[in-house]
Design a protein that fits this description.
10-stranded mixed β-sheet, 10 strands, single chain
Length: about 280
């Protein structure tokens, strides 16, 4: 089945790096890649000068989109990859929502930082907004400067408090199918024993993933969860981190905290977020 992948770009090196990662991750798949640039300009309807400025900015953005498209075509090795450009005048999260619906997007891939992103924070604000707003398809956030590595090891972090159905886990299975990846299910023991609900959800998870090579890791709560996740990534040489974003989940907690509290969780590998 052909995939439609959205690639938001602000023409930064970081966004180009995310595009390259997407091309390599789906190197053997039939895909249409949509390069999206969003420009929201407030202009006076009565001002010809404002309209001229808007037109100049739009022309410049379209030229840059075409340049990125040309570079992507030259970099690409799969004849079954197709590239299209989208220029929108709404803000980025609105533009992403519109594109997801209009072009039946299966995945959004973007860099973790924009042109002016502060590296010490959790993510650039645009990435946080995309994760918050993209409720119709997953978002894959690629860290700044991260070079593609075949994802042989995928970590799925879960607190086991939420029941996952077969459709919830389809993006995880599809990701594992690309390179026959091993799925490492990672749970931090905040409690001494699993509750009845957690035991049930664990059994269901095993059933849904029975056709995939997978195993479970129970980690004691020895430090902040964000540090434990990164320790786990390093210890097991994980290539992609997967989480499901739902109410009261770890992801929701991090992206809704004040900015100063987001310091400390730096995804060191690509971060694949599945919406509820």
């Amino acid at each position: 089945m052909r995939k439609n992948i959205l690639l938001p770009t602000d023409f930064s090196d970081n966004s180009w790096n995310a595009i390259i990662y997407a091309l390599k991750l789906y190197a053997e798949e039939d895909c249409t890649f949509y390069l999206l640039n969003s420009i929201k300009i407030k202009v006076s309807t009565a001002s010809n000068f404002s309209k001229k400025i808007k037109r100049v900015i739009e022309e410049k953005s379209k030229k840059e989109l075409l340049r990125f498209k040309e570079q992507a075509v030259l970099t690409n090795t799969n004849a079954n990859h197709e590239f299209k450009i989208i220029l929108r005048s709404e803000n980025l999260e609105q533009s992403i929502d519109i594109a997801i619906d209009k072009y039946h997007i299966n995945l959004v891939v973007m860099g973790t930082q924009g042109a002016t992103g502060a590296k010490e924070f959790f993510f650039g604000s645009n990435t946080v907004k995309a994760i918050e707003k993209a409720r119709l398809c997953p978002v894959l956030a690629v860290p700044d400067g991260y070079d593609f590595i075949i994802p042989k090891q995928i970590a799925f972090s879960t607190d086991l408090n939420r029941f996952y159905d077969f459709l919830d886990l389809k993006p995880l299975r599809d990701l594992a199918d690309l390179y026959h990846s091993k799925i490492r299910i990672f749970h931090v023991n905040q409690e001494e024993h699993l509750s009845e609900i957690q035991e049930h959800n664990c059994t269901t998870l095993k059933e849904y993933l029975k056709e995939y090579e997978h195993d479970f890791y129970w980690m004691p709560a020895y430090t902040k969860k964000e540090k434990e996740i990164n320790d786990f990534i390093l210890d097991l040489d994980i290539n992609i981190l997967v989480m499901i974003n739902y109410k009261h989940s770890f992801i929701e907690g991090v992206i809704k905290e004040p900015v100063i509290k987001k310091i400390g969780f730096h995804p060191i590998i690509p971060f694949f977020v599945i919406p509820e």
